[in-house]
Amino acid sequence: MTDFSLSDVVPPALTTDALAGPRARLRKEAVIRGVFFAAALVSVLISVLIIFSLIKEAWTFITQVDWGVTWGEVGWFPRRGLYDVPTLLVSSIIVTVVAMLVAGPLGLGAAVYLSEYASRRTRAILKPVLEVLAGVPSVVLGFFALFFISPNLVEKIGRNGWLIIGYTITAFAVAGVAVWALRAWRDSSADSVTIFKRVIGLIVMIALVLVLFLWVNSVAKDCTPVPGDIAACPSDSAFTVKRSGQLAAAAIGVGILTIPLVASVAEDALASVPRQLREASAGLGARKATTTRQVVLPAAVSGIVAAFIIGISRALGETMVVFMAGGAADAARFTSSPFDGGLTMTAGMASLATGTDSVVGEGLTFQSLYFVGLLLFLLTLVLNVLAGRFVARVRERY
Amino acid sequence: MALSTLGGGDISARVEQTIQRRGSDGTPLATLWTTLAAGGAVLAIIAMFATWYAAARTANALASGWLPPFALVLIVIAGLALVAKQLGVLGQGRRISSDLFVYGVGIISSGALILRQVAKGDLNNMVYVLVLPLVFLLVALVRSLRNPISKPMLELEQVALGIASIGTALIIVKRLIDSEHAAGGWVWGLLAGLAVIIAALVACQYLGILSMFQVMLFGALALSTIILIVLLVQVIGDGWPVLSERLGDFWSGTLRSRSTDDRLGISQGIIGSFWIAVFVVVIAFPIGIAAAVYLEEYAPRNWFTNVLDIVVRNLAGVPSVVYGLLGLFLFVKGTAITHWFIDRINSFWMSTFDSSLIEKGQSTLFAGGVTLAILVLPIVIITAAEAVRAVPQSLREGAFGVGATKWEVIRSQVLPFAAPGILTGTLLALSRAVGEAAPLILVGAITGRLAPRDSMFSGMEDFLGQFADRFTAMPIVIVGWVRNAGIDEGFGPAAGAAIVVLLVFVIMMNSVAVLLRNYFEKKRA
Amino acid sequence: MSTVTPTTPTDTTKDVALSIDEVPTAKRPESAEIVFETKDLSVYYSAFRAVRDVNLDVRQGQITALIGPSGCGKSTVLRSFNRMNDLIPGARVEGSLRYRGIDLYDPKVDPVEVRRRIGMVFQKPNPFPKSIFDNVAYGPRIAGIKKKGELTDIVEASLQRAALWDEVKDRLSASATGMSGGQQQRLCIARAIASSPDVLLMDEPCSALDPIATARIEELMAELKHDYTIMIVTHNMQQAARVSDRTAFFTAELDSQTDQRTGLLVEYDATTTIFSNPADERTENYITGRFG
Q1: Which chain C residues touch B300 with a CB distance below 8 Å?
Q2: Does residue B196 share a domain with residue B301?
Q3: How far is C284 from chain B (nearest CA, A)?
Q4: Does A10 touch chain C (CB under 8 A)?
Q5: What's C279's domain CATH number?
Q6: How many structural domains does chain B have?
Q7: Between B and C, how many residue pairs show a Cβ–Cβ distance under 8 A?
Q8: Which of C45, C79, C85, C115 to mutate to test binding with chain B, by most B CBs within 10 Å of its CB?
């Protein structure tokens, strides 16, 4: 037992206290942890404050308002005490729907292309496009919507939409007839009876198309434009309209804003589809398009739905574009036409607060602000929770 | 089958069905594509003629002479050839002669139109848009000649061709829409635009490299790109004159009631946005990063942590106006409780700095800054949490193994490793905060005339006093001017100029953030 | 904490396994001081019992190896010796684990203190993304040693001890991640040694390394056992036979009640006994390669 060279190194007999560590250090660690915990609690505090502020003021509104003025009224005139909620709600819905018509296909298409088809070089060049678009502030889009989209797109299309649709349908009808005719002509197995029937059929179809074409033309010519009714029939000459903006213009702007968001969530969803599924499909001899359509997209569908819902939530919550380009200033009449000016819930709230630096108006004007805010908050909360469920579903599957 | 073992039983069945369907002719899918292709070609033909006709009626420069109709006739023939090819009338398979034909015709006609304008000395004509497709047709022709077995074009060429075609179409559309004298001409112009787009799609389909599906997808991406480009061009174009004429004055000017006022400018907006950025950095970043560290490093896996997580995510999805409502409630209007808090803060501030920080019942810079900090906080938390989550566990274990405390591990390993990601996230959050307007409007930022402060630097009292004063910010300035543009047209370009300034900052910050992220990703790999 | 005496390893030949009679009494396993003692130790991850009923004693100055097929809780047991399992939420321990007589899982015990005395080297080398110097100096720094001179001495001594000094002495400020796998693992050993621990736990330290690097680390272990008590988990039976003084063989069995595979200690004895004359049939099956 004497040759031990370890004796110098053996530490003295241990006690539990020796292993307990210096109290100062433990206290310091606890304090640090407490600080971090407090920081995390701030977010809870903020949520509570938001809900509290909304409910407190909205409650005043709910208990004191004459509910008759909140439904079926002329419009949203808060400073005069007319709080027609459907005006705001319907306008919000119109804007959201049109915005998603823009953002949905474009965002999803871009995401699918970037995720499935783009080479690394293309990706490196074009993905930044989406990222730049995501960084553009909403006021810029409002400017763009008011000064570009509104006069160039919406005003023109709004007045002549039916004409465009009519002519395009005619053109495709002509094409369809032509294709059918050519195919029938190439079909050498037909006997004379069939050929005869086909010729008759062809003549009938051409006649129908001609009728369609003439009808579209006549509708275009005979209509007298009704002053003030923007979506009336087409006119021969374009008359100048004062730049005021429409819901549709604002909605397209909101849609453009939402494209990057939809694209990024959709891309995440597509990326979470495991490579093995794609490889399996390719291994069976499917082309890229088939693999994408039949395998990848169905697998990522939860995430894509989540992307849409998140896009809807964002479109609902967007304020500035509608505020600047929506075509209504302080108040709005009820309308269900996208070519008209209007106020969404968000723009309505913002317009209440502008002009002066305090919200003035008779009676419950200030409280109406919070009532609408509460509605908006609840709506977006429900949407976000729903989207979260879908995202969770994607994670579960893979 | 491999697919079904992966749990995609029904998927594999559908894949097989579609594979069997794809090759055969006369199926519904093939007919649909063919109809679309033919319809597009027919539209192209009709539209070309109509465009020429309408343009001729308005003495458009494009119309005079024999060349344009000749070129257009050539294009029509090419279109017909396309259709025939598509329907298999001209025979199956690809042949160099038909490739040459289509390319050659396109090159000759667009080349002729361009040369004609050049010869006339008219350099400011829309025709020059045709240069882009011309270049790519040339490239495609050369490649087609060098490779008898035509190899697909480089994807980027396809990209460029697609963008060029769509861009050309849209410009034609815009040009024709603007020609208000053409009798119904703009309608034809719109159809022409549609037709060119579809013709481009058909061409890609014809070239056999891309499927319609892929092209449509790409079209979505291309359209987004074009929208962005148009947006930037239009905005910058509107604002450029103001900037180039009087950049210095614009920078130092203030809010005025008339757009022709020489002293109109954005200085107050810049100052306001600057202070808001400071508030965000000072308030939201530390709290946000700390909260993220707690959520990822300290928090136990219980229900409360789940609740915290949900709360943060939902806060990130709350519309920005609602934060404005909160700011309005807390700092401007307030209730008894908040007034008490404000009084406490004010008395503390007063004793230190001898001026008040918040004014009750009035919009203040403080209110705006704190509101935006609150808005941005959830974003900071989420991005910082992601960055922290990405730190490899082996790093932590290595440090723990040597006897480091939790805080030491976080300080010496986790935070340094996560720093680039956190930095990126915070930069993005900052650029978001600078661009937000809705909450500021609610809190009462000034959009109209704002009396300028003498100077930010004319003394400590003045410096500190601005927090309790009314304020404005860049986005608000823009909104105000845009709203006034209906009455006083000059405010439009001024707003455009302000937007340019704002965009420069925001895009710069975003680009720096993205570049940083890419740089560190590369370094780590 | 005692300081490490720098020694230059001149003789790097492996320790040749001595027969039990040639070992001087002082080095006989049975007479060395007990460092760890476990009694019916079970480790749980939430409801899942990863390993049960572990009874072993680890003695000073020896290398104790834990061997067995995968999934039988060897790493879990090892990690419980320095409270690393605390990092996993839901992990808990039943039974007793004593370190030099102290209950390691006493509520008063601070895991940080434990880990400063019981160091660990991990399966995959995990150097910090810092310089070589800063990696080794990390432990001493958090222990409060700030003076550059002292740190330099400690770093040099540790790197010498880990047989890495000659290779890196000219580039101490280079990044640690630029080294080969074998060098990184030796760095991690140096890093662990720099805190002057009492015990070194090594969780499959060579499994991510090539045979040459493995051999060097095994040489190192033979050197280090003069100053540290070493416990090693290994999949490599031959390594255990080469390097260790005592060996514990684990296996996993299906628990009929819970329907889970739970690890358990089958046999624990001197290495020579385990490998030449095991008492349990399962041990013999594993040794002779009939399973695992």
Answers
A1: 89
A2: no
A3: 34
A4: yes
A5: 3.40.50.300
A6: 2
A7: 69
A8: C115
d(CA A91, CA A88): 5
What is the count of structural domains for chain C?
Answer: 1
What is A68-158+244-397's CATH topology?
MetI-like fold (1.10.3720)
pLDDT per residue of chain B (525 residues) written in tens, 0 to 9: 333 333 334 444 544 444 444 433 344 554 554 455 445 545 545 545 555 555 555 444 444 555 555 555 655 565 555 555 544 444 444 444 555 555 566 666 666 666 766 676 655 555 555 565 566 566 656 665 665 444 333 343 444 444 444 444 554 555 545 544 333 444 445 555 555 555 555 555 544 545 667 767 777 887 888 888 888 888 888 888 887 887 777 777 777 777 777 777 788 888 889 999 999 999 999 999 999 999 999 988 888 898 899 899 999 999 999 999 998 888 877 666 777 777 777 777 777 766 666 666 677 888 889 999 999 999 999 999 999 999 999 999 999 999 889 999 999 999 999 998 999 999 999 999 999 999 998 887 766 656 555 444 445 555 666 676 778 889 998 988 888 887 777 788 888 889 999 999 998 888 888 888 888 878 776
Q: Pick from B16, B221, B428: which is nearest to A110 by CB?
A: B221
Q: State whether residue B304 sits within 8 Å of chain C by CB.
A: no
- Give domain status of residue B6, yes or no: no
| Chains adjacent to B (≥3 CB pairs closer than 8 angstroms) | A, C
Q: How far is B503 from chain A (nearest CA, A)?
A: 7
Q: Are B328 and B444 in contact (CB under 8 A)?
A: yes
| Domain ranges, ordered by start, for chain A | 21-64, 68-158+244-397
What tens digit of pLDDT does each residue of B479-511 get?
Answer: 888 888 877 777 888 888 899 999 999 988 888
- For chain A, say whether C136 makes contact (Cβ under 8 Å): no
**What is the C-alpha to C-alpha distance for residues B204 and B225, in angstroms, rounded to an integer?**
19
Is the residue at C52 inside a domain?
yes
Which tens digits make up the pLDDT trace of A318-358?
999 999 988 877 778 787 777 778 889 999 988 887 754 45
CA dihedral B303, B305, B306, B308 (to 10 degrees): 130
Substitution target in A46, A292, A365, A397 with the highest count of B β-carbons within 10 Å is: A46
- Residues 143-202, chain A: which have Cβ within 8 Å of B? 143-144, 146-148, 152, 156, 160, 163-164, 167-168, 171-172, 174-176, 178-179, 182-183, 186
- Find which of A2, A3, A14, A19 to mutate to test the C interface (most C CBs within 10 Å of its CB): A19
Residues 339-368 of A with CB under 8 A from B: 346, 349-350, 353-355, 357-359, 366
Contact A44 B311 (CB under 8 A): yes
Give the CA distances from residue B58 to residues B123, B186, C191, in Å, rounded to whole numbers and listed in that order: 20, 12, 85
Burial B404-441 (b: 16+ CB within 10 A, else e): bbbbbbbbbbbbebbebbbbbbbbbbbbbbbbbbbbbb
- The C-alpha angle with vertex B484 and arms to B482 and B485, in degrees rounded to 5, equals 65
Task: Find chain A residues with C-beta within 8 A of B14's C-beta.
Answer: 294
Question: What is the C-alpha to C-alpha distance for residues B156 and B160, in angstroms, rounded to an integer?
Answer: 6
**Is B465 a domain residue?**
yes
Question: Does residue A321 contact residue A240 with C-beta atoms inside 8 Å?
Answer: no
Same domain, B50 and B165: yes
Q: Is residue B7 assigned to a domain?
A: no
* Residue C67 belongs to domain spanning: 33-287
A24 touches chain C (CB under 8 A): no
Classify the complex by whether its ipTM is higher than 0.90, answering yes or no.
no
Percent of chain A with pLDDT over 70: 76
| Dihedral sign for Cα atoms in the order C134, C136, C139, C145 | negative
Tell me if chain A has a CB within 8 Å of the CB of C112: yes
Could you list the residue range(s) of the whole structural domain that residue B481 is in? 250-524
| C270: DSSP letter | E
For residue C67, list its beta bridge partners: C249
Looking up residue B277, the CATH number of its domain turns out to be 1.10.3720.10
